Amino acid sequence: MRNRRSMIRWVSDLAGPFRVPSRAFAAHMAILGALTTSLAAICSAQAAPRVVTQLPDGWHFFQGDPEGAETLDLDDAAWQVVSLPHDWAIAGPFDRDAKAAGENGFLPSGVAWYRKRLTQTPQPGRRYFIEFDGIMERSGVWVNGRHVGYRPMGYIGQRYDITRHLRTDGPNIIAVRADTSAAPSSRWYTGSGIYRHVRLIETSDVHIPQGGAYVRATMITESQATIAVSTDIHNAAADATGVTVELVVTGPDGREVARTITPVMSVAAGRTVAVPAEAALANPRRWDIGDPALYRAAIRVLGADGTVLDNEDVRFGVREARFDPATGFWLNGRNFKLKGVALHHDGGAVGAAVPLAVWRQRLTALKGQGVNAIRTAHNVPSPEFLDLTDELGLIVMDELFDQWNVAKTPEDYHLFFGDWHKRDTLDMVRRDRNHPSIMLWSAGNEIHDTAYPVQAKAALRSILDIVHAADPSRPVTMALFRPNVTKDYDNGLADMLDVVGQNYRENELIAASRQNPKRSIVGTENAHNRSNWVPVRDYAPFSGMFLWTGVDYLGEANRSGWPNIQSPSGLLDRTGRQKISGMERESWWSERPVVHVIRNADPAAAGPATDGAGGPNQPVLPTMIAVATPKPKVALFDDWTPDDPGPHDETIEVYSNCRQVEALLNGRSLGTLPINQDASPRRWSVRYVPGEVRAVCRDAGVVDVSDNLRTAGKPVRIDLRADQSLVGSNFDDMTYVRARVVDAKGVTVPSATHRLHFAVRGAGSLIATDNASSVDHTPFPSHERAVLDGVAVALVRGAGAGRFTVTATAAGLKSGAVELRSEK
Fold first, then answer.
1. Closest C-alpha among 5, 471, 482 to residue 204
2. Which pLDDT score, from 0 to 100, does residue 14 have?
3. CA-based Rg of the chain, rounded to a whole angstrom?
4. Helix or strand or coil: residue 14?
5. What is the secondary structure of 383-427 as a DSSP string?
6. Are 151 and 136 in contact (CB under 8 A)?
7. Which of 281, 321, 501, 612 could form a disulfide with 225 if both were Cys (CB 3.0 to 4.6 A apart)?
8. How far apart are CA 90 and CA 108, in angstroms?
9. What does the alpha-carbon distance between residue 534 and residue 55 come to, in Å, rounded to a whole number?
10. Structure confidence by residue, pLDDT tens digits, 437-486
């Protein structure tokens, strides 16, 4: 009973069996007619004709390129049955001779096919769209053997109208070819297959096309905000249709705060019109990093008779953001630095098919250590990733391309840029423009076209025109690559940007700002050294920076070479565990009191930090070398268990933003040190004795802010703890179960090398295991995982409603177990 016609058919069918005299029949039909009118009115008032069906299950998968895989009659019964999202490459094996080599983490690439039988029967007057959030890559889509579309880029979302290819007598078969055989074609690890969500969207012939609903605040005061809504309406019917748009806005508390309806407008057959609407919000609650308040706009397209033709809900935020050439970044009247990190799209052990729970853990951990901004490097992110940044209050630089016309690898996107960049740009901006977390669009990363200024300016102008037309509310930047070499600051290219972005070389960007004070500036990619942060911190026009990177990521091991499989450049490791670099960054960026104590075994650490970086005697490397090659070995340890148990010199190193910090060894005070002028680490040189090291914040009014390290004894047992005790059963649900090899007192034994076996019993399943190692080649789906620094993790998911137990066992250790609860 989706519309009035189906309701009338249903009522008419009821009348069929009745055989009554004509007078009684007339009365009976009058009653039925009244019932029809009433029910039709109910349908008109309550119908939601857009039906969205997620398509996660029942896909048949084949790794290879068989003849006729797109045809209707192919027998795929022997193919593997998988659920989506699905990254087949992450299962491995790691191979030194893999075609994509270290750029893709020595993991496999190639062609794979997916096929699925649709159960929906097409109805007259309805439109059917298949929508993919990401297929890696060079994908083709067929319906019942008919080719319906192709996209070369693996990160872009794509929607196809498949209405005319569907059969009413069934079956209806979707076939998808995904091809990463050109690897390496993207940087860095890309994954392979249908690695993001897929859905079937059913609408009426008159409908809102993909990305057709645009909501933004055009005027904001303390007492009122004006919300402008533009709704594209496409008429795929044979005749012109009169339509109106009803807008209902609900506030962060779920209560209705505004309602309006537009005048009737005629939409010709085969045409699209944009219908504007406005609504006033009283006393708007602004979206902010500390209060990510979200509104919802319910948009309904109505026929002239009030029938609901299509509907779409849009979440949005009310906020004022700007980049000022003199003072940097402003949000809702507050001026602060963007303390950002760049993120690749892989999720470690899950590859490119990343459950939302992985991103939630990572982003929450990053925000907890002072990060307030994310750069999606170097690709279009998934829609749910941006939903999460909206919810968590993280500012986003949404990035389009890693290549334009000039290649970085022989078969990358430069082959398609000329033909596809306009559509890819428009599709990305239209899909993402309602997210309040997005403050900047990035047109590209280290684009090599800039060596050819005429070509580069033409390409940039093309992108800028599309972005500004589709979203006039946000500025555009790009990550300039050695702009002083290609003269971007002199030839006019940099000044085409709304905000000038540069990778590394912070003092060069400051010089460009001083050269032209009208330039707004931001560091689009930056190294971890203290010497990279201080210029950003101390120069008011510098809007902020984005560290390379926030989380260790698979790939970019081409420079370090086999056996390395990843770039260990994050503040968090692949499992979301804070690294020592994250501890130090937290002491610089967090607004709450922070104390972290570590052991620095470098003999040179006995004196003050004089390396110029303000870090733990890390050399200040040239920009690209600092992030693109393995870092020099630094003797930093998150333990008080050196290899040499006898007396020797050690250095206690503390990262803290407290004005005063006291260090203690086995309860004996080693003295209190004030914060260094550049906030570099505080250090105490001691003669090693086993026991406990503690660092305590001694600022007035600060209570219980401390950190400690304890000497570990012999390994005795496995300690097992889950990040959360209640786990859902959908793809986006999972949790980390963290294992530690500990001594009798529960202290992690960093020298442990035990190989753990993880098992799941009950209403749960194991997804993968990991230890964050750069050189472990054990396939991620394995139940076996050696500990690294005494720790390893299992990624688990629920399976229906009930309880399940995760256990970890190893030779010579008492096993560990944790009980979790699964919800359907």
1. 5
2. 30
3. 29
4. helix
5. HHHHHHHHHHT-EEEEE--S-SSS-SSTTSGGGTHHHHHHHHHHH
6. no
7. 281
8. 8
9. 49
10. 999 999 999 999 999 999 999 999 999 999 999 999 999 999 999 999 99
pLDDT at residue 629 greater than cutoff 70 = no
With the CA atoms of 773, 523, 414 and 199 taken in that order, what torsion angle do they form, in degrees rounded to the nearest 10? 70
CA nearest neighbour of 804 among 796, 794, 793, 815: 796
Helices first, then strands: H and E counts in the chain = 11, 49
Please give the Cα distance from 460 to 450 (Å, whole number).
10
Rounded Cα distance, 371 and 364, in Å:
9
Q: Which amino acid is at 618?
A: Q
| Parallel, antiparallel or unpaired: strands 295-303 and 717-722 | unpaired
Q: Name the residue with tokens 């688990």.
A: 796
Q: Which residue has the tokens 């914040």?
A: 697
Tokens 């109805």, residue located:
123
How many CA atoms are closer than 13 Å to the CA of 666, on its beta-carbon side? 7
Decide the pairing of beta strands 791-798 and 802-809: unpaired
Q: Convert 727-772 into a string of H (helix), E (strand) and C (coil).
A: ECCCCCCCEEEEEEEECCCCCECCCCCCEEEEEEEECEEEEEEECC
pLDDT tens profile 113-161: 999 999 989 999 999 999 999 999 999 999 999 999 999 999 999 999 9
Cα separation, 795 vs 737, in Å, equals 6
Q: Which residues of 600-626 are buried (b: 16+ CB within 10 A; e: fewer)?
A: bbeeebeeebebebbbbbbebbebbeb
Distance between CA atoms of residues 134 and 155, nearest Å: 5
Q: Is 133 left (phi over 0), alpha (psi -120 to 50) or beta?
A: alpha
Model pLDDT, residue 634: 64
pLDDT of residue 40: 38
- Report the length, in residues, of the chain: 824
What does the block give as tokens for 106?
A: 């020595």
CB 185 within 8 A of CB 409: yes
Q: Which helix (H) or strand (E) holds 624?
A: helix 623-628
Distance CA 112, CA 135 (A): 11
4-39 pLDDT, tens digit per residue, is: 333 333 333 333 332 333 334 344 434 334 333 333
The CA distances from residue 254 to 5, 119, 264, 297, 737, in Å, are: 33, 35, 29, 11, 35
Q: Which residues contact 649 (CB under 8 A, 6 or more apart)?
A: 603, 606, 685, 686, 687, 688
CA angle 233/239/244 to nearest 5° reads 35
Beta-strand ranges (E) seen in 152-205 are 158-161, 172-179, 198-204
Q: Give, in order, the Cα–Cα distances in Å from 27 to each of 9, 23, 398.
A: 19, 6, 64
Q: How far apart are CA 642 and CA 690, in angstroms?
A: 9
Q: Is 298 left (phi over 0), alpha (psi -120 to 50) or beta?
A: beta
**pTM reported for the whole predicted model:** 0.91
Q: How many CA atoms lie within 13 A of 524 on its CB side?
A: 30
Q: Return the closest-CA partner of residue 657 out of 705, 597, 593.
A: 593
- CB within 8 Å of 256: residues ≥ 6 apart: 248, 249, 250
For residue 646, give Cα distances in angstroms to 51, 670, 688, 690: 70, 20, 7, 9
Backbone phi, psi, residue 243, to 5°: -135, 160
Q: Which of 295, 275, 276 is nearest to 285 (CA)?
A: 295
Q: Enter the DSSP assignment of 603.
A: G
Which tokens sit at 283?
Answer: 């006393």
- The mean pLDDT of the chain is 91
Tell me the per-residue pLDDT of 341-367, one tens digit each, with 9 for 90 and over.
999 999 999 999 999 999 999 999 999
